[in-house]
């Protein structure tokens, strides 16, 4: 055999050995990951199941999954129910959270389920809201760009970043950039927007014409590029499942980070995480659905709101519980507005304004309110909130015109992109289906539990949006018809007797 053939044969054997060694290493890595994930799942599933999960405990933990409408519940329900003195300090700020506050009764945060390790588990009730995974990805993409676009008022990225740091250092509040996952997603999109704007300026592209706001590569990262980026894989996709399971990159437990990486590396291990997430939904006091807005709000008011009212009524002899100091609440900034418009150089007068510290939050909490009154208050609040959100969104998107994200525009996203989003979020798709089943059961149970006059009236009014005076009118008509029916029957009997 000539030297050339010998050398080729040697290279072949060396390559074969490398392939076999790599396969063996990969197998060992998978085996290690599988053992770690299974051990974590087993210990999680062995946790004690609450005997009476339908009863509100001393502490309410609202596990806020981003872009599910949780902020609306926080403002328009929970802040109407809980006085400031009972709210856990700096709920959205992980670094400053202090669960040792004695009278702490309400915690609302984007932190994942691992937060339970910091709380008195036996006396904590958990609630959450889930959203259709495809819509949640759309909303996350849109919101990331919307918030990042507010920085475009600056001449360049360096100026925007420095200004944000200076304003953050001067304020005591918590901005969107402090909150998971926006502290990762917004800077990512901010850098991308500035890079694309600089490219347009360099090439002299002033007028951008496009009919698809989700595919304007000269202005913003296209949706299809966004969903395949490693950052989206780590934070966005299957985010609800990882959050409910306690496995985000913001988790409190050290082992959760390795478990998450193993599941992301080997998709087949995802079913272990899904089982844990389903079990945790089972143990929650309330699970709402963003798409079933009306029914979810009504159920929340009856399941959670009614019990909070009862607790406050039992714990205080006073008719009202004062809202506490304004400063404690006004130190928080909304999870959907960064720096209170501080990133706009022309909005310096608004630098100290807190969106959460609005006048309505300084009202006293009335422990004698009914569920119906709570829903009436909710309707007024949500209308105002939506109006301010729309105005802020419109103002932000003007900076990246003609991009304009709307529900109508979503309808034109290709089937292929939709298929990819569903595939990338297969765990969330399964968890959402499971949540739909839980929601249906809880809705049925709520209807059965609230069969009293007040309960039926509340459910009737809130479900069909009939005001009190209309209900009274209907009742009057029914009573009148009943009286006429009785009189007619009485007259008939009288006529028969005469005959």
UniProtKB/TrEMBL annotation:
<keyword id="KW-0732">Signal</keyword>
<dbReference type="GO" id="GO:0005794">
    <property type="term" value="C:Golgi apparatus"/>
</dbReference>
<dbReference type="InterPro" id="IPR027417">
    <property type="entry name" value="P-loop_NTPase"/>
</dbReference>
<dbReference type="GO" id="GO:0009733">
    <property type="term" value="P:response to auxin"/>
</dbReference>
<keyword id="KW-0472">Membrane</keyword>
<dbReference type="GO" id="GO:0017095">
    <property type="term" value="F:heparan sulfate 6-sulfotransferase activity"/>
</dbReference>
<feature type="region of interest" description="Disordered">
    <location>
        <begin position="314"/>
        <end position="364"/>
    </location>
</feature>
<keyword id="KW-0325">Glycoprotein</keyword>
<dbReference type="GO" id="GO:0016020">
    <property type="term" value="C:membrane"/>
</dbReference>
<dbReference type="InterPro" id="IPR010635">
    <property type="entry name" value="Heparan_SO4-6-sulfoTrfase"/>
</dbReference>
<protein>
    <recommendedName>
        <fullName>Sulfotransferase</fullName>
    </recommendedName>
</protein>
<keyword id="KW-0808">Transferase</keyword>
<keyword id="KW-1133">Transmembrane helix</keyword>
<keyword id="KW-0812">Transmembrane</keyword>
<dbReference type="GO" id="GO:0019827">
    <property type="term" value="P:stem cell population maintenance"/>
</dbReference>
<feature type="compositionally biased region" description="Polar residues">
    <location>
        <begin position="343"/>
        <end position="355"/>
    </location>
</feature>
<dbReference type="GO" id="GO:0010366">
    <property type="term" value="P:negative regulation of ethylene biosynthetic process"/>
</dbReference>
<feature type="signal peptide">
    <location>
        <begin position="1"/>
        <end position="23"/>
    </location>
</feature>
<dbReference type="GO" id="GO:0045087">
    <property type="term" value="P:innate immune response"/>
</dbReference>
<dbReference type="GO" id="GO:0010082">
    <property type="term" value="P:regulation of root meristem growth"/>
</dbReference>
<dbReference type="GO" id="GO:0010468">
    <property type="term" value="P:regulation of gene expression"/>
</dbReference>
<dbReference type="GO" id="GO:0055070">
    <property type="term" value="P:copper ion homeostasis"/>
</dbReference>
<feature type="transmembrane region" description="Helical">
    <location>
        <begin position="468"/>
        <end position="488"/>
    </location>
</feature>
<dbReference type="GO" id="GO:0008476">
    <property type="term" value="F:protein-tyrosine sulfotransferase activity"/>
</dbReference>
